[in-house]
Amino acid sequence: MAARGAFAGCLLGLALVLAGCGWEPLYAERATAPADAAMRAIRVMPIVERIGQKLELALRESLNPAGLPTPQHYTLRIALRTVRADLGVQTQGLGTRGRFDAFASFVLADSTSGADLLSGLSHVSESFDILANEYSNVVAEDDARTRAVEEMRRDIVARLTVFLQRRVAGAGPLR
Asked: Is a pLDDT exceeding 50 seen at residue 174?
């Protein structure tokens, strides 16, 4: 019986220690509370090419995951440039490894005044194998493009979140 009480006391003590150190569960909801409304108020402008369309859709889903109707106060313009290169080249001139680079310059602007609030550049580099089978090459390169879109989306959303949290908190615009 005493062992059971000691165990319960240890569990209670551990819970109190963890609560005091700022520990948060790994899969808890993200806490961007004040900036959430501002994030939903961003209108992502159309981006050219197929990879741009994928990035645009991913950003829209990240900024307003619930799809709540929100008045748009900001516009996000993105210029996307992509480069594909062969890295490993055999003596016969055939590539064995490819690299896909994507560069996105983005500008967050106030919709009413048109003033630029935040600008930045995001660069992502993904590699893939080049095989003898052409279909495998197409699939591998498309997978590299998909990974690049996801990584770029995370980078841009993180920058926007930090900027808007500081702006809402009154720390002023950060460039």
From this structure: no
